[in-house]
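ok, trying the design again with the full structure, not the truncated one.
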């Protein structure tokens, strides 16, 4: 991603796959790596905004190797992207919560329409 090979084996917040769609963690550093900023508080929930700031990749290392399968849950708190509130209850690819971090699906809607990325997938 952005020329960086991401190793899921020992990542605290690995990329996830749900319904054949890759999900990306929206941690503080991952957001900035992707040109996004995020802010969380109990009143507004999670707010994600596209910016022109891009940081180098910061790996969240884990001491133990990740399993090949995990359970995540659908995020039930308020999420706003670029000023638009997301109705997560009706989405085919909902925002997920895993290890207390929100995960976004890398669908066209988010990757291209909201985040403005040049998006392609290679095996």
């Amino acid at each position: 991603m952005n020329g960086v090979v991401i190793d899921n084996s020992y990542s605290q917040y690995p990329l996830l796959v749900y319904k054949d769609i890759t999900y990306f963690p929206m941690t503080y550093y991952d957001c900035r790596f992707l040109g996004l900023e995020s802010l969380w508080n109990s009143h507004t929930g999670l707010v994600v905004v596209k910016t022109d700031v891009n940081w180098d990749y910061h790996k969240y290392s884990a001491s133990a190797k990740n399993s090949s399968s995990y359970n995540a849950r659908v995020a039930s708190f308020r999420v706003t992207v670029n000023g638009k509130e997301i109705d997560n209850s009706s989405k085919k690819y909902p925002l997920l919560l895993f290890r207390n971090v929100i995960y976004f699906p890398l669908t066209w809607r988010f990757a291209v329409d909201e985040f403005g990325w040049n998006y392609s997938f290679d095996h």
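Keeping the full-length input from now on. The radius of gyration is 14 Å.
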